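This part of the workshop introduces the protein records we will be handling. A learned vocabulary of local backbone shapes supplies the integers on the structure line. Getting from the letters to the tokens is the skill we practise here. As an example, a complete record with its sequence and its structure tokens follows.
=====
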Amino acid sequence: MGDELHVEDEGLAILGEALHPLVGQRPGARLQGSVGVEVGLGGGELLGALGHVVLEDSEEEVGLAVEVRVDGAMRVAGPLGYLLHRGAVVAAAREHDTNPSVKQAAIPQLFRAAGAKRRLWMLAALTLLFGAAMLPAMRTMGDHGASLIAFESAGTVSRSQEILTEWGDAGKTAMWWQLGLDLPFLIGYGLFLAGACAAVARRAREAGKPRLEQAAAVLVWFGPLAAAGDFLQNVSLALVLEGHVVQPWPRIAALANPTTTSLTVSAGLFALCGALATRRRRSAAPVQEGETE
């Protein structure tokens, strides 16, 4: 009985030397089959010893992993590290378009909101509606003498007074109607042009065209500036209608007319050309992705 206990104690010592990470050759050293035979341990005792050593080994490995310092973000050895590092690069590339810290063209939020497709259609309908509503008044003015454009471009006190005399009460009343309907009209086309240019800026950013985006950030102001010039012209014409046929009101109205027209045409052409340019880019993008895949 004493000899058996001695053999078992010696076997446990051998097992400890083979398994313990501080005594054995390396953490988690495997026990050779011959040792298991010589010590004559039971199955339960052997599993218990192995479990104890594996638990200690895992704890030490976790501690070592925490203490290891790695140079570079997400730099982990092996295939997992490659995937993590590659994923970080891809995520950073995709984040370029949505990250607020990335430099973006400065466009007011009102103009960006107006650039939504549904709002653009609504603004276009509003502009056309009030533009059509002004036609009867413009026809009445033409039937009683000078046209609306002639009154806007008069430029001098004498010519403005001459047109008012030709119109009479009917022509003046029609002019007041035209000025009233022109207010929602200029708001509509001013926001429409601003929203259209803002939409071009958004599409240019998605298509990776920074120059087009920056140009849109400048042209986005042309529509509102044209509307402001139109409003200033209306104020000048209203003062003339009220009897203030003195300078500078006729001259201001005459100068505002070509300025407003130039800004409106420039913004409209840019919005149209920019939409076509970004549309070709976006339609070609899925084909390129399909080819690369």
Observations:
- The longest helix spans residues 157-207.
- The CA atoms of residues 10 and 207 lie 76 Å apart.
- The chain has three domains: 2-67, 71-102, 109-282.
- The two ends are 75 Å apart (CA to CA).
